[in-house]
Amino acid sequence: MGIFSSIKRAIFGEKKEEAPATTTAPSSGGGRGWDPDSTSQAISEVDVEARLDAMDGADRLNWRTSIVDLMKLIGVDSSYENRKELAQELGRTDYSGSAEDNIWLHKQTMQELAKNGGKVPAEFLD
After folding, report:
1. Phi/psi zone of residue 93: left (φ > 0), alpha (ψ -120 to 50 degrees), beta?
2. CB–CB of 104/92 below 8 Å?
């Protein structure tokens, strides 16, 4: 499991466990069984900003612009090594930990959350 997967799970929650339970549950009303699209629909409704704002410590950490604070807020190790691994997962092989690298890493993380079904405000994506 990668660093991004840990970030996604910390924000979105454990969606994987819900899908198998849904597949074995009997259909109720309307004759509709498990819908594979329902899992992606549920994930797409995750409001990333609201989830992060609701976390304990959100008022003390600058998660909106700092990748280190974002990782601390969700309980993921924010060490240089983990940030470097995250950068590699997101396509950057020359991560040095500079301010510019961390700004890029924050934006890329937010863009990946959006690609994976998170509702992310436009200010985090430009």
Report:
1. alpha
2. yes
Phi and psi at residue 47, to the nearest 5°: -90, 100
* 80-112 pLDDT, tens digit each: 999 999 999 999 999 999 999 999 999 999 999
pLDDT tens, position by position, 36-56:
444 444 444 799 999 999 999
3-state secondary structure the chain: CCHHHHHHHHHHCCCCCHHHHHHHCCCCCCCCCCCHHHHHHHHHCEEHHHHHHHCCCCCCCCCCCCHHHHHHHHCCCCCHHHHHHHHHHCCCCCCCCCHHHHHHHHHHHHHHHHHCCEECCHHHCC
Nearest to 7 by CA among 101, 99, 86: 86
* pLDDT, mean of residues 118-125: 87
Residue 105: predicted pLDDT: 97
Cross-strand pairs, 118: 46
